[in-house]
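Troubleshooting log. The previous structure file for this entry was overwritten by mistake, so regenerating from the original sequence record. Sequence copied from the archived sheet and checked twice against the printout by T.R.
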Amino acid sequence: MAPNSGTTVFLFSKAPKKKARLEDIGEDRLREMKIVGLDMMVLSVTTPAAQALPSEQAVPLARQSNDRLASAVRAHPDRYSGFATLPTPDRQAAVQELDRAVQELGLKGAMIHGRTGDRYLDKEEFRPILAKAAELGVPIYLHPQIAPRAVRALYYDGFDETGYVLDSGTDRK
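Regenerated output below.
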């Protein structure tokens, strides 16, 4: 969702049509929602969001993304709601951003992934983020993410692309 970034949001989705559809939070998306009979959509930043970046990049990108998301929600509050992205590489900044996103921007919670780098969410260092969500009474949606390279190697090395796609239900392109 970061305009002109060409990095985080589309790290794993470089196909032009996918990129355009992910970026669209305006009239095209609203038209498609109407066509399929979808009244409300919860918007969020696509994987891997700010979690895959160093802190010095993750913090401003999360803030910018959440501002843009909140703007889209304010423009169409009857059609959109939003989950914040959090800069989990900096746990304190993530706590502050969750508070700002909910209290000031009106977002309804956050979407994060089960790990930041090689650190999983069950580590003590991430508890303040979860505690802030509990304090605010908002959900944290845990989005699946691609497995670490070592795990992928154990599961998929020796298989061709078809095996990966069939097993995971995803397209690596």
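The mean pLDDT is 85. Archived copy saved in two places this time.
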